[in-house]
Amino acid sequence: MHQDDWIILIFTILFIVVYGAYKTRKNKNIRSFLKGDNSSNWFTIGISVMATQASAITFLSTPGQGYYDGMGFLQFYLGLPLAMIIICMFFVPLYHKLKIYTAYEFLENRFDRKTRTLGAILFLVQRGLAAGITIFAPSIILSTVLGIDIKILNFLVGFLVIVYTVSGGTKAVNITQKQQMFVIFLGLFFVFFFLIDKYPENLTISKFLDYSRSSEKFKILDFSLDLNNRYTFWSGITGGLFLALSYFGTDQSQVQRYISGKSVKEIRLGLIFNGIFKIPMQFFILLLGVMVFVFFEFNTSPVNFNPQVISHLEEKHNNEFSVISKQYDKINSEKRRLQENFLVSEIDFPSELNSLQTKEKEIRNDVKELVSSTENTIEENDKDYVFLHFILNYLPKGLIGLLIAVIICAAMSSTASELNALAATTTIDLYKRNHNQKKTEKHYLVATKLFTVMWGIIAIIFASFGTLFENLIQLVNIIGSIFYGTILGIFLVAFFFKRITSNSVFYAACCSQLLIFLIYFNIDISYLWLNFIGAVFTVVLSVFLENIGLFRR
């Protein structure tokens, strides 16, 4: 990177960390540390909720998702606005009335301690894993840029997050997230206009859309009933709804963002703000991925975007790679000829180009198979490297530093929320609830900060053993979907089935979680459906167990 990029990157990151730590350094008690003295307005809540979900994974993986699979991933978010309405109607008033620190306090209020503990542990497991992944994502970037070992970078990123999260708690997270979201949107809009400027002069908006649609990148809605298809209208409106309900309504990393609100009205406005703008934001990020795809259609793209793959092939399989490269270059030469005709004529997208794109995909798959057959430590899947490659190789100096700062800021905002929530749940639901001796507010404040450090270290360790899955954003959602359905089922019973007692819901939840594990590891089904199955099974089995009186007390 150029010196200017380093200046912009370092200044942006240090300013956010130092400013957040300084502004929120005076936390006198645990209420101030975990709930920010209930001082957050609707805008702060809305931005904080959005920033918590928009991790570095969003800005690394989502453009790659758009590049390879088009806009279909947007269906994942179709259930979110409805989920926001339900949460505003039923969850928010009760949480605010009870003055809870964590969502799982409500479960003991409604059921008993063991149900509360079960909900808390399920959250800690899945969110603890996710925190490691959100640290791992920006480390990929810096490792590629600097050539430094990922484990060292995991430590540095994790350390920066721990500093201001321990210093200021919830208030620090909320304050820094507003600055981080500003940097994020600034960087993304710069990329958007840069891409428009670099397109061929004859590539009009209509031709861009024709090219994208013909390349099957603009198919947003899929109404098929195929359960193996991850992203359809039906999986989004059902599984996506249940996932959003669980994530925003029962996941402490989100609940903690809005229970710090001044009033029920402010909280509701903040959540509705998120519900309105989340889908457009994801649409924009996916659109950037499609725009990058079109950009590389008219420019030279590598046969694999992961630089480690290219280096490995050049070193270990030079002869095979030379043959593949020549085939790839030949296809691109033929594409250029057809693209020139497409730009100057009024004809429809030539079918020959579709055929060449298919051959290009086959060559990319051949490269992946060649790597996987001989090397297990290199990730041949390059979805998470597409946007990074574009940033590092095509953006002008200064803008590169800003975009890398965007991704790191996103990682920090999401990780900070997760550590804050993990520490809160550990302190309130496990340590304080099961600690027989009464301690001072200062004691629990110190304990919460120590738990923040502990979870930060655990996240760093997990990140150090992390590896790229098919796609990081999918990995996070899969981990969540394995646990979210069961957790949501417990809360649905608590809210809407007043006659069901604690033992029935507890054992139903345990059976539900076991069922989800069996389904995930043995049946090929879209992970979004796991949220629906887990929630419905927990509710139905709870009703059944209560009616037969097997565990009734």
What is the element layout, followed by pairings?
Blueprint: H1 3-23, H2 30-35, H3 42-53, H4 56-69, H5 80-98, H6 103-110, H7 113-146, H8 150-198, H9 205-214, H10 233-237, H11 239-250, H12 252-258, H13 264-297, H14 307-316, H15 318-344, H16 351-374, H17 386-394, H18 399-432, H19 441-464, H20 472-496, H21 502-522, H22 528-548
Helix pairs in contact: 1-8, 1-18, 3-8, 3-12, 3-13, 3-18, 4-13, 4-18, 5-11, 5-13, 6-7, 7-8, 7-18, 7-19, 7-20, 8-13, 8-18, 8-19, 11-12, 11-20, 11-22, 12-18, 14-15, 15-16, 18-19, 20-21, 20-22, 21-22
Q: What this model shows, in words?
A:
This protein has 2 domains: 3-21 and 29-296 and 392-466, Sodium/glucose cotransporter (Up-down Bundle); 307-380. Helix 7 (113-146) packs across helix 19 (441-464). The model has no long low-confidence stretch (mean pLDDT 81). It is globular. With 553 residues, it is mostly helical. 77% of the residues lie in helices and 0% in strands.
Write down the Rg: 24 Å
Q: Roughly what is the average pLDDT, rounded to an integer?
A: 81
DSSP strand count: 0
**Poorly predicted spans:** none
Counting structural domains, the number is: 2
Features:
553 residues; mainly alpha; 2 domains
Give the structure's gist in a few sentences.
By secondary structure, the chain is an all-alpha fold. The chain has 22 helices and no strands. It folds into 2 domains: 3-21 and 29-296 and 392-466, Up-down Bundle (Sodium/glucose cotransporter); 307-380.
